[in-house]
Design brief:
Elements: E1 8-13, H1 21-34, E2 39-44, H2 51-55, H3 63-68, H4 73-76, E3 78-81, E4 84-87, H5 101-115, E5 120-125, H6 131-139, E6 142-147, H7 151-168, E7 174-180, H8 183-201, E8 206-212, H9 216-223, H10 227-230, H11 235-258
Parallel strand pairs: 1-5, 1-6, 2-4, 2-5, 6-7, 7-8
Antiparallel strand pairs: 3-4
Helix pairs in contact: 1-11, 7-8
Bound molecules: adenosine-5'-triphosphate (ATP) and magnesium ion.
């Protein structure tokens, strides 16, 4: 008999790179692990891994071994603490940046049984709209889109949401605004993205919270240790904690629904009906049809 699923899988994604995904994935994971949730943190930035660097570790085995060889999962998963596991990715392996369809399917099949052991499975994805990113995002229960107030971040996030909505029929997105200089700037960034999604895609996105621009974040990166551990009372740590609390509540509320699902949802075939674009009307600097 298989037990009902209890894992909430969460993909951390962004249109533009360098917006804080890896730091957010690591520190949200750390908070939820500390709150007593068994948790898997997976470096899905295949070929350009970063989580190992933020943690100051050099894993011997990586997700590449899962793709290339049928190595047992337990040899690859790295326990950071009891109940806090890391699935590392390989760095500097260009051929891994984009997996072909068969390699991707094989990887997903191998990951499925692993995921179900945890309360949360976080996937730190690469930036942009590569097929691997889109597949992981589509198979997760929750998609957290990280944006900054920069116009380029907002336009690229909108493009990412649009591709996921049109190709995979997804309409639920949670937004974190990172590195704003004030709460007003955070709200303004969210409002612009949300208004564009409402107008051109016909659905709203959900605000999960803002994370302050805080020099403690790069300090923690330099010291290769999680911000929540080094500076738990910093502004950014306080904000990340608030997002973690929301995610814990979201999981709690969805447990009955999750029990009917798999930890990684089956991948639906991408739809091909991507909208044609026309002169800019979005106000985000994007060419778009209404
Ligand atoms: N709230 C913050 N305040 C200040 N600096 C931040 C904050 N969040 C992230 N940073 C800085 O931004 C940089 C990029 O962060 P990070 O590597 O987490 O981004 P990313 O989205 O994962 O990038 P990539 O797309 O390359 O994977 C880091 O140098 C980090 O220190
Ligand atoms: Mg990253």
């Amino acid at each position: 008999m298989t037990l009902p699923n209890k894992t909430l899988s969460i993909a951390i994604l962004s249109g533009k790179g360098g917006v804080g995904k890896t730091n957010i994935a690591l520190n949200l994971s750390y908070c939820l692990f500390k709150a007593g949730h068994p948790l898997l943190l997976m470096d899905c930035d295949i070929g350009l891994a970063n989580l190992d660097v933020l943690l100051g570790i050099a894993p011997e085995k990586t997700i590449q071994d899962l793709v290339d060889e049928d190595m047992p999962l337990q040899e690859i998963v790295l326990p950071l603490a009891r109940g806090f596991d890391l699935l590392p990715a390989a760095s500097g392996v260009p051929e891994l940046l984009e997996l072909d369809d068969d390699a991707r399917d094989h990887l997903f099949e191998r990951l499925r049984p692993l995921f179900s052991r945890y309360d949360f499975a976080f996937m730190d994805l690469g930036a942009g709209i590569s097929p691997t990113v889109l597949s992981f995002a589509a198979m997760s229960h929750v998609r957290v889109v990280v944006v900054t107030p920069e116009p380029t971040s907002l336009t690229d996030s909108y493009a990412l949401i649009k591709v996921l909505a049109t190709q995979h029929g997804l309409r639920e997105f949670h937004v974190v605004v990172n590195m704003a200089e004030s709460p007003a700037e955070e709200r303004e960034a969210f409002h612009r993205l949300n208004a564009t999604c409402e107008r051109f895609l016909g659905f709203s996105v959900t605000y999960l919270g803002g994370i302050a621009l805080d020099k403690h974040v790069p300090d923690a990166v330099r010291k290769q240790s999680p911000l929540m551990k080094l500076s738990p009372t910093s502004d950014a740590a306080r904000d990340i904690m608030a997002v973690a609390v929301k995610l814990a509540k979201l999981r709690e509320a969805r447990l009955p629904e999750l029990a009917q699902e798999q930890a990684l949802r089956p991948l639906t075939q991408p739809h091909k009906n991507i909208h044609k674009t026309s002169p800019d009307a979005t106000g985000l600097g994007i060419q778009e049809n209404e």
